[in-house]
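Form 12-C: Joint structure prediction
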Amino acid sequence: MKKMRNNITILLLTALVISLISCEKDTPQYLPYEGYTYAELNTNGGDWVPVLQSSGDAIEVTAPSSTDSQEYQDELEELKAAMSTMTSDQRKAIKYWTNNPAIRWNEIALELIAKYNLIPGPNADGTYTLPNPSNPEGPPAFPFAHPPYACRALAYMSVAQFDGLISAWHYKYEYNRPAPFQLDETIDYAYGENDLPSYPSDGAVVARASRNILSAMFPLEVEYLQKMEEEHLESLLLSGGNVMSDITAGLEIGDAVSETALTRASNDGMKNAQTPKAVSDSIKQAAYDRFGWAWDNLEIPVRPVGLTPLFSKVTMWSIDDVESVRPIPPPQLDSQELLDDVELLKDYAKNMTDEKRRIANFWQDGLGTYTPPGHWNRIANEFMVEYKLNPLQTTRTLAYMNMAIMDAGISCWDAKYYYHYPRPIQLIEGFETIAGTPNFPSYTSGHSVFSAAASEVLAYVFPNEASTVRAWAEEAAISRVYGGIHWSFDATVGTDQGREVAQYTIDRAKADGADQ
Amino acid sequence: MRLLGIVIAIITSEALHAQTPSDGLMMPSKNICVLFSYDMGTFDRYWEGSYLRSNETIATVDRNMVLPMAAIGILDNLNFYVSLPFISTESSEPNGGFFTGARGFQDIGFALKYRPIRTDWGPGRISFLGTAGFSTPFTNYLSDYRPYSIGAGAPEFSLRAIAQYEFKNQLYFRASAAHLWRGYTEAERDYYYNDGSYYTAWMDVPNAWTYETILGKWLFDTSLKLELSYSSLTSTSGDDIRAYNAAQPTNKVEVDRLGFSAQYYFKSIKGLGVVAYHNRVIDGRNAPKMSNTGFGLTYQFSVIKKQTDEENAQ
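Section 2 - Result
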């Protein structure tokens, strides 16, 4: 009897311990938000100035059939029939996509960036093979979605979405065709209601533009992206928010804006950014002749060329001449300023604190992750949901933020390869770091420039959050110094550089008609 | 000052040899065994998925451990264990990554081993034992810093079943199987990729099965114990390390390992033993091809509580 009681006690203790360990944590795979009523509708949004299109009516969209036409009534009946036989998977999909799906497509882009942000390793003979767009399977697979690649993919996708939605808004308020759930009381709308006309479907514009841009940027994901688009388009219909002709018209806009964006992308200079060794060597020699120093890659085996030496030549969005925003030169190698920084970095490394380690890791966004531009897109997504932005405001925010981030990256890479400044591990004997040293020169810090630019655009869109996001950008900048892979002036000058570069895009945003 | 009412005496019993939560030995009631060992592990290759590779970014990684452990005989058939390893890791030089190593106390572990059955059977004696273990990180070491992190950074609960058959000539065979339930570890970033995006700092450390088979023999009047072991660990879920990328705690780990150990108990100094072992990982997945060698001292003594001491101290 006593033994049995002991056994029961042990059993109970066992159950308790197992439940303590395995208590399921919530590990979300996307931002947990649902469809909502927009804070405002921006009925004049069709008059805003697009980024690449000349105006909201530059893409022609024919007038829809009127709601009392037989054609429309047939569409409505088809919709109701489809809605009456929805499966649980379809209901799940509707809940997932929401009525602000640009955020979902942004998350898809971030996921692909994280999937492809893998640096090619060396071959057995010590050489390195670069990803090749004409043989995307590789190995190594194309692309290597490093921060310059990532920020460019995000910029083109967001710009295409924004231009497309300006066009959609233009025709929505020109034709004013109400959404199915507003015309027929028997249709239950899946999301918070809005008075947004449904022709052409804004969701379809976002789906098609995003799918087209991402398919070009991630050629191995064409099938996956098509599958996601199909699921999204079906949800647009089954949500009760669109009939098929709304969606078809939206797809036409999506095709048109993505074609314009991809035409720009194919001629923006990115294909020459990763240079042959001879060009890379001459860039390095030029810096050495000019300043008396040069950055060396210290990997084993040595990588013959740094990351995208000519990313600086890629066409900027809001600045004509990259040299006009080039920062001041970094300190001379024998200057007191550098010697002080050497001591600072040694001190940080020797006296690493939990807080500095946490900051270094939180903002690291290194290989295998969505990169710093991706991290700022995630931050933007969270704010846009919190402030209940409509799809047009959402894509406007993402477009300007990613344009500013890409311009910041181009300017940063100009400084990196013009000044060709060595990393801490190159100048400090025996130095060890807690973060991985990247394959490009030190000055200025990419994290600092990307983050400062992103935070300035967010501060402009969300003035209540300005001090918060600026503080985060400064933390992201100093995180690289804590990580041991950047000098403190890489971070501080980089932050100033990012803020200055972003201002050009913000000036453009202020003049696009949205603030009037 | 209050005296501990404990008198320590070296016992003369034969049952001197209780050692670890996973072996087939039990220590008598009111005995304590302390183990202090030093372990040197090293690897210069690891499996990325199922591909065995080297990586000059980390070159050769050394992992050294100091392990203090105590075993306490609560009842003759019920032992309690507590352990707390200190681990340090670093890369050999030169290496292409310039990463600093890690060091610190890893996980504090507790275990209860119970022997419900020991009986003569055929030409020898058969024993069945069961062990329940729990361990949890003792410090806030970073688990998301492979290959230097000193542990998985997650609580673990294990249940192990052990069967041992020993012939009259002290040749024995032992097999054990255990399931490890692992919890979550907290990274210092709130986004990671694990065959898809995860927007959280919590990483799910996969549960695992472990199996062990051992052939052992006592020699020289039960003073030298030799063991050959084959053990394996298989995660029940998890992702693969991606090409030329760092490992992470969510990985599906598999390890097959061969080992040899020798333990000697001095006749001249009652209760003192020495142990030496060598293990080699022979196959794996998302795991280092680690070899480790260790040496340790064990000391066993009995504790007899004398109430009079406590009274005298008042």
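Section 3 - Comments
Residues 273-510 of chain A form a domain with the Vanadium-containing Chloroperoxidase; domain 2 fold (CATH 1.10.606.20). Chain A has a mean pLDDT of 96.
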